[in-house]
Design a protein that fits this description.
By secondary structure, this protein is α+β, with helices and mostly antiparallel strands. It has a single domain, classed as Quinohemoprotein amine dehydrogenase alpha subunit, domain 2 (Lipocalin). Helices cover about 15% and strands about 60% of the residues. The protein is built from one helix and nine strands, in the order αβββββββββ. An eight-stranded antiparallel beta barrel has the order 1-3-4-5-6-7-8-9. Strand 5 and strand 6 form a beta hairpin. The N terminus is likely disordered.
């Protein structure tokens, strides 16, 4: 009987750990590599995650500084960066997957400006 209890506790503990591993936490500074028809860029993004809610700051040479908001659900991440480039409002939509605690990848959509792909590494 004691052996059954020990086995059940071990199974419950590993299930709890598996559930925790499925929750990504992207809080911190990330360096992105974005590739699109316009070329390659390396914006820096600073994320703050509160549960599934994601907020933060986007910084690049082309777009300057901008706010971002989105969600992280399990390993899925999506967020929008709204910025003004030379007086034109631009909205960048990033959709991807958190591959590990220090990497993610996905796609970028910029409306009429086209799209691309991204990879990112935690700084």
């Amino acid at each position: 009987m004691a052996l059954v209890v020990i086995v059940l506790i071990g199974v419950a503990g590993s299930s709890a750990r598996a559930g925790q591993a499925a929750k990504a936490d992207v809080t911190g500074v990330w360096i992105f590599t974005v590739e699109s028809a316009a070329g390659k860029s390396n914006p820096t993004l600073t994320f703050k995650q509160d549960g599934e809610k994601l907020t933060g700051q986007y910084s690049s040479q082309l777009m300057g500084e901008a706010q971002l908001s989105g969600t992280v659900k399990g390993q899925a991440i999506d967020f929008i960066v709204s910025a003004s480039v030379q007086g034109t409002q631009v909205e960048l939509k990033y959709v991807g997957t958190v591959e590990s605690k220090d990497s993610m990848k996905g796609t970028l959509s910029a409306g009429d400006l086209g799209g691309g792909t991204f990879t990112a590494a935690r700084k």
